[in-house]
What does this fold into?
Amino acid sequence: MSYKCDVCEKRAGQGNTYTYRGKAKYLGGIGRKVTGKSKRLHSPNLQTIQCQVGGSVQRLTVCVQCIRSGRIQRPVKKRPFQIQAGMV
It folds into this structure.
């Protein structure tokens, strides 16, 4: 199973991380120089939560942007059975 959102198919993006040397110009130096570059992954913020899918409840891996935007529906938590006081 890949590391992606089950709703919007968001997955890790590729990028670079840079290593710098030197002092910034606005601090009185001659500028920052790039001394190294390496690959890295930008991972989405994925959470495993219970979602209401059709008439059943399933565990899905969903990104936080989908949760906050309301693209998924959380299941309704039902209270345990209780006997009412007037019925006894």
About this structure: The chain has a mean pLDDT of 91. Strands lie at 13-21, 33-42, 46-53, 56-63. The two ends are 52 Å apart (CA to CA). DSSP finds one helix and four strands in the chain.
